[in-house]
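Hello again, I could really use a second opinion on something today. I've been staring at a protein lately and its backbone has me curious. You're getting the sequence in one-letter code plus the fold written as tokens. I'd be grateful if you could look everything over and explain what you see. No rush at all, and the record is pasted right below:
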Amino acid sequence: MEAAGKEEISVEDEAVDKNIFKDCNKIAFYRRQKQQLSRRSTYKASLDSATIGKDSTKFRIINETTKVPLLAEIYGIEGNIFRLKINEETPLKPRYEVPDVLTSKPSTVRLISCAGDADSLVLTDGKGDLKYHITANPFKIDLVSEEEVVMSINSLGQLYFEHLQIPLEQRATKENKEDTSADTSQEDQDDLGLWEEKFGKFVDIKVNGPASIGLDFSLHGFEHLYGIPQHADSHQLKNTSDGDAYRLYNLDVYGYKIYDKMGIYGSVPYLLAHKLGRTLGIFWLNASETLVEINTEPAVKYTVTQMGPVAAKQKVRCRTDVHWMSESGIIDVFLLMGPTPSDVFKQYSYLTETSFPDLSVLPPLGFSLGSLHSCHPGSFLRKCALEVHFLHLCRYKNISFSTFTLD
């Protein structure tokens, strides 16, 4: 007689309730950046006072609304790597910079100016064909290879930088108090999470106020993007214009939803873009909660009147815009310019020594190469049933291992 009421296991039935985690609209720094960027506040670079040193080129970036200056530093790094750092020129206290990811101080290549004036500056390392075109107003950087713009930085004007502030209760002068009240009401401060952010029963106190950062990158001719793990979604990154951004925030989530952009387990702010003839990477060195928006514009067909020397070579080009937003820290980004996939892996490995294609770091031999780990929260009987099933599956698929860890 056939057994009745046979149990069926559904992944969706066991999926975690997403309401216990934040989506974009519940993240204060995301709301603030979206609100401010809608007003199109622009930055201008002071290139007439730029200094080109042995290790880096430095210049000031000024917000035309607040007049508060930022300090930009551009580095050429061996192996076709470009580094951009943007920080407060005179911060209230040192902002956090990630100390332990880079294995050592990267070897820099001196950049030289091959053209420039008060409105623009062109830098090159003198070795390859890559050039860095910096435009002063509005601030923008174009990375050009063989007369083709490969990547643009801040072409959408989404540079965003919140400056550290003295706590409200410590502002003694009447002038400061008036400035604060004029800037935003108490209700707006609570809504935007400037000094305190609440989610459920959790309260996040921000001693020095809001400190988020953001910057956009336009990848010309690219539509295939990968990386920024870890998400239970498709290998190729999707457009986020019709939904939540990709969230980089470590969460040990049991029963996470599949085909979803919510963050799980680990987060690596490393993105790859690929097209015919070139691969490049963006390594956003920031350890705080980060959101990444991706928007691919369809291919543009140039008309005869639009054609120039560059347009004539590639008449149809798509463009993908990547907008990075982090809760705190500084803007510290490495652009791995390839041009081949192998080159990009080597460049990332050179910075972090975590790329297995070069075998820069091997896992502990004798354990990691031959062990499996199983973690199934739930009842004891259910865990046993799942693990026994898993062991039979490994045997059936001829998957060998020397140890099996239950937890």
Q: What stands out?
A: The helical segments are 28-37, 174-183, 186-192, 309-313, 341-352, 380-396. The two ends are 37 Å apart (CA to CA). The longest helix spans residues 380-396.
